[in-house]
Amino acid sequence: GGTRILEARCPAYGKAIPFLPILEFLRDSFAIAERDSDQLVREKIAGRLLLLDRAFEESLPLIFDFLGVPDPDRPGPKIDPEVRQRRLFAFVRRLVQAQSEREPAVILFDDIHWIDAASDGFLAQLVEAIGTTRTLLLMNFRPEYGADWFQRSYYQRLPVSPLGRADVAAMVAHLLGTDASVAPLPALIMERTRGNPFFTEEVVQSLVESGALEGEPGAYRLTRATEDLEVPATVQALLAARIDRLPEQDKQVLHTAAVIGRQFGELLLSAVINLSGAELTSALGRLQAGEFILEQAVYPVAEYIFKHPLTEQVARESQLQERRGRLHASVARAIEEAGSEKLDEQAALIGHHWEQAGEAPVAARWYGRAAGLVGLSDLARGAELWGKVRELASRDASDAEADRLALEACFQLLNLGWRTGLDGEQGRVLLDAALVLGERCGERELPIKAAVAFYVLLLHRGDVRECVKVGREALALAEAVGDPDLVAAASYARGEGSAARGDLADGLFHLDQALEFFDRHPSPVMAGLGFYAPAHARMLRGSEVLVSLGRLQEGFEDLERVLDLAAHEASPEQLSFVVGVLCWQARWHPEPAVVVAHAERALAATQKIGNRYLIGPVLAGLGMARLAIGEPEEAIAHLEEGLSLVRKERFVLFAEPSYVSALARSHLAVGDATRAHKVAAEAVAIAERRGTLFLEADAQLALSQVLRAERGQAARSAIDRALARARTLIGETGGRSLLPLVYEEEAALAAFDGDDSARERHLREAHRLFTVMGATRHAQRVARELGL
Predict the structure, then answer these.
(1) CA 293: distance to chain centroid?
(2) Separation of alpha carbons 369 and 625, rounded Å
(3) Buried (b) or exposed (e) across 479-496, using 16+ Cβ within 10 A?
(4) How would residue 529 be classed by pLDDT, with cut points 50, 70 and 90?
(5) By the 8 A CB rule, do 258 and 292 touch?
(6) What is the CA radius of gyration of the chain?
(7) d(Cα 143, Cα 155) in Å, to the nearest integer?
(8) Closest C-alpha to 421, from 471, 365, 383
(9) What's the CA gap between 39 and 33, in Å, rounded?
């Protein structure tokens, strides 16, 4: 067989249009034509992939969705955008490798200095995939482009250097010929062009057009003295002069084409320009003859490309801004009218043209449509587009529709915020803007959703005090509106925030309020935030509230129900989240080895799907479970790795003190009391900073335990302070699960004092509380110490 040639181009406006070159590359791979029906496109994709490897069948719904031809009978999976992106990356790698096994290929990416960020990620995957294949990946780019894959051993860079004098002379001789009259020209052209081959060609073409050269290519004669020749000092000036000399009709065609982009089709051009078919065809022919444009395709529709990006740039920028704006508007309308079936994919391009036309609200609407699509696969690009929507929509304060768009953008930016690096200060600005916009345009639902999204951001960032405040704001707003869905969502937010803070009674009340609604409406998604609210509410009610309150049986029953649901739904993300929460309370579980088994399965599933947010909490949770079964060395390894990821991704930071307290106890268990003391003090400081009162009580207990082991009676005053603070916090939070641990510590202190009676009294109270809680393993441990 032969060698497949696959191409993709990055136009100058390409940074505004997500996935443009990747979609072109994939369509070329599957031989998809512009006019193919959705059904035919799916058949081409499936046919090609299944011939390559039957294992591709499971990826078909995902690829159909990505290429804009979803199968109504097999809809694409509803998965986290980052997981979707990773699966698409994996697909591209497998596709390139499978195609290479069948036949060698050359893949060309043109002008990648203009590539959009989403496509750049895919390009890195192509580079990763081709290392051991029969595929040659060619790319051209300007010096300002850079990428990590430049360091690959199989990457070779071929810089294009300016031509030397001898090379320019040879090139000019080829272009002009050997007539004696042209002999002075190589030196003059070298002085102006500094060895730039495109500039050199343009100088010769300009001299021909001005009449300074007569004859044919390769056989010209100079008609003027060299001192009379005018050669502009820059290629831009030269191109502007050449364009200015064009007949008015040809200039009109070139200007219009430049607004469309470097690559343009005759069909779109004819829809924008006021010329007959014959006039347009003639003008395009003359522009080709003048080497302004090149013909790329003839069938089924004539396609052209500017010979050089600079030609397009000069042709576009030499127009008056007002005229250019009108042309952009005409192009936007023409694309809208021509692309009714693929408008989602073209939305960013249409938005670009409306923005250049000065129609900010219209551009904002199209960018919003693009953001909704690209956000499914590229969160960062989705957030970037929503930011653009907000900026454009906010320009006109008198337009109610623009206000609603800006409000939607505020919500979406907050909704994506915990995964895109938004901080609390930026989030507050967005929420305040959403509240003002909602009031101005009479929209009451989106500000509440924005408040709930901001609460989620604050919770994961670990700003629990502010999180509780925002949860209360959200609930007050929802109750004022009176919408049951929103009240339930805001009740969940307030309940989780209160639980994280340590106000367990308030947390239980509001989570129960939310669950009462969810039980009557079994499929709500939390205020558009994309997770299954009933499962999360019950999970948090069980772990953060009931177990902390000392109601172990009820709490673990809730968690078992959610585990069953997650397993039934076959959702690795949901399962990992539930298991991570279960691990927080592994020390109280009747069978901690079961928790370890759950955590190991969840870790394997999370690592397989590559969800970078969940790996950290699951690893840290596995460490807590390992500590509960008496494996402190393994616990330290898991906790340290998990904590590192949690901090790096800034995910579930509200739980950070519990991980650090477990790490302190693990160090103590392996006999490193000095290290344990440092880590326990860190746990206390983090809990105080985060405002997590219940977790601070646990950290104070851990500090008491390690101080006693490290310094004994010498640290008595510090131990007493830690225990007193723990008792106070237990009283404030109602977290009675920790109370028997306090009595155990007090029994140990009584032993220091030689007060056997007090020691026994404290141990008996600890035993009673463990028994009432249903903490059978702990009750048995204390019973052994009492000799019962």
Answers:
(1) 38
(2) 45
(3) eeeeeebbbbbbbbbbbb
(4) very low
(5) no
(6) 34
(7) 16
(8) 383
(9) 12
- One-letter amino acid at 25 equals F
Side chain identity at 577, as an amino acid letter?
F
Confidence class for position 427, pLDDT limits 50, 70, 90: very high
Question: Which residues contact residue 165 at a Cβ distance below 8 angstroms, ignoring those fewer than 6 apart?
Answer: 186, 190
Q: Which residues contact 224 (CB under 8 A, 6 or more apart)?
A: 212
Among the listed residues 366, 113, 403, the one whose alpha carbon sits nearest the alpha carbon of residue 411: 403
Name the pairing type of β-strands 263-265 and 219-222: unpaired
Question: pLDDT tens digit string along 696-739?
Answer: 999 999 999 999 998 888 899 999 999 999 999 999 999 999 99
Yes or no: say if 21 and 119 are a contact pair by the CB < 8 Å rule.
yes
Q: What is the mean pLDDT of residues 445-471?
A: 92
3-class state of residue 45 by DSSP: helix
Question: At which residue do the structure tokens 């901080």 appear?
Answer: 423
Q: Is the pLDDT at 289 greater than 70, yes or no?
A: yes
User: Residues 453, 529, 522, CA angle at the centre, nearest 5°?
Assistant: 130
Spatial separation of the C-alpha atoms in residues 644 and 617, rounded to whole Å: 10
Q: Where is 303: in which H helix or E strand? A: strand 303-306
pTM for this predicted structure:
0.79
Going by the DSSP 8-state scheme, the letter that residue 224 receives in this structure is S
Asked whether the beta carbons of 749 and 560 are under 8 A apart, the reply is no
CA geometry: angle 755, 756, 761, nearest 5 deg: 105
Candidates 611, 643, 607, 605; CA nearest to 624 is 643
